[in-house]
Amino acid sequence: MTTLIAAVLVLGLLTSVHELGHLLAAKRAGLQVDEFGLGYPPRILTLARIGGTQYTLNLIFFGAFVRLPEEGEPGTHLSDQTKRIRAMFLLGGPLLNLLLAVVLFSMCFVSGWPVGHDLAVGVKVRPRSVAEAVGFENDDLIVAADGRRVSSTLDLILYARSVHGNVRAVTIRRRGRSFLLPLPAGAPWFVKPESRGVKLCNGAGWVESISYPWPQAIQQGLTQALTSAASLFALAFDVVRGMIPADMVRPVGPVGIAQLTSQAARQLVDTGGWFPLLHLTATLSAALAAINILPLPGLDGGRLLFIIIEALRGKRLDPSKENLIHFVGIALMLMLILVVTYHDITAPYPPGGR
Fold first, then answer.
1. Is residue 226 within 8 Å of 111, Cβ to Cβ?
2. CA distance 98 to 92
3. Are residues 143 and 28 in the same domain?
4. pLDDT at 354 (0 to 100)
């Protein structure tokens, strides 16, 4: 139940923030907004009426909507406004989604961003051996020998042989901390994959959680949000150019997003760590911002495209024709969502995400 609630809240947050962006842009431009609703009708109650706008709470508590008037005083409609104001209204939703991504990514950097480190040399220790007496423990990671970085068993053995086994100290990574472990002189160290009770293993590495101060976290959050949004466009271009096979790219629908959110929420319940849920929500918010500015009919970007065409032509396209194009675009998107949803249901995302 907790994971289901988390999925609904995340999806609702993303769509509500998007609509709130449109509302703020409309208010700043002096447009009349009849209603800003949390959830979708039927209406439960009216929370407030401010500046001619009803703020309502609705029964289907998922997302939000902005309702503009169809009739009223001239100059208060979106269609009456200049190209710049109409463009800012359309950009309001994606921009607020991007801002949400920046905030959530910044929180991730403050709470602790996982940083993967290069490969090191893993260690297995034979009981009652010289290695155990010296201080080695199972699953220690050797990251350096005499200050020289090593990333594989071969690296360590070649260095040890170059000094005839007289390795004086190694840098050990153990349970989240690093320290220097001096080695006694005597029989050669590390000239073979197993010596003095130490068995060396390849392919070991570690992930460290690094917390950033708020000023640096905000800067990193902005970079990460822009990178996440841009990566969606880069992925699409790579698929079109044939650099990435299309069958390797899986679109995500509402059900798929709910599955991924539930997995992140389950990690929160199991570990108490907020990072997976915050990171996923931030990534989805950045993706929603990027998708909505795509120049496709029915999306904010598609409507922006018509404003650009209007600027180039010097006059507006017939509103009835424009609305028909957007209607067709929305219908096609709904069909695509149904197909993706069917795929998400019949082939759900495995635990661990994509």
1. no
2. 10
3. no
4. 47
Last residue of a domain, one of 205, 234, 265: 205
**Does any domain span residue 53?**
no
Is position 63 within any domain?
Answer: no
Left, alpha or beta for 213 (phi > 0: left; psi -120 to 50: alpha)?
Answer: beta
Neighbours of 84 (CB within 10 A): 11
Q: Does residue 42 sit within a domain?
A: no
Q: Do 174 and 90 share a structural domain?
A: no
Residues 318 and 183 in one domain: no
How long, in residues, is the chain? Answer: 354
pLDDT in tens, 265-298: 777 767 778 899 999 999 999 999 999 999 999 9
* Cα distance between residue 69 and residue 35, in whole Å: 9
Strand partners, 114: 209
Q: pLDDT category, 352, cuts 50, 70, 90?
A: low
Q: Is 45 a member of any domain?
A: no
* Structural domain boundaries enclosing 185: 118-205
Last residue of a domain, one of 205, 229, 263: 205
Shared-domain flag, residues 318 and 256:
yes
